[in-house]
């Protein structure tokens, strides 16, 4: 049974920036393309999408 989680390869753009990981579901998938470009001017951003409701 394969995982339904989606993760893109992490690239450190600026080693002086803090690293941020956004974790979310389909809602985050809908707004990540708007939010991440704005965050990338001050931090290295990666994200993890999951279909599970209780990941912790």
Order of helices and strands: EEHE
Q: Name the shape in a single word.
A: elongated
Number of domains: 1
Q: What does the main sheet amount to?
A: 3 strands, mixed
Explain what you see.
It is built from 1 helix and 3 strands. Helix content is 25%, strand content 25%. The chain has one domain (6-49). It starts with 5 loop residues before the first strand and ends in a 7-residue tail after the last strand. The longest helix is centred in the middle third of the chain and has 14 residues, at 26-39. A 3-stranded mixed β-sheet has the order 1-3-2, covered by helices on one side. It is elongated and about 35 Å long. By secondary structure, it is α+β, with helices and mostly antiparallel strands. Strand 2 (19-24), helix 1 (26-39) and strand 3 (44-49) form a beta-alpha-beta unit.
């Amino acid at each position: 049974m394969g995982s339904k989680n989606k993760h893109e390869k992490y690239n450190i753009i600026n080693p002086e920036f803090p690293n941020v990981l956004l974790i979310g579901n389909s809602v985050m998938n809908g707004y990540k393309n708007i939010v991440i470009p704005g965050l990338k001017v001050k931090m290295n951003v990666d994200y993890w999408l999951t279909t599970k409701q209780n990941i912790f």
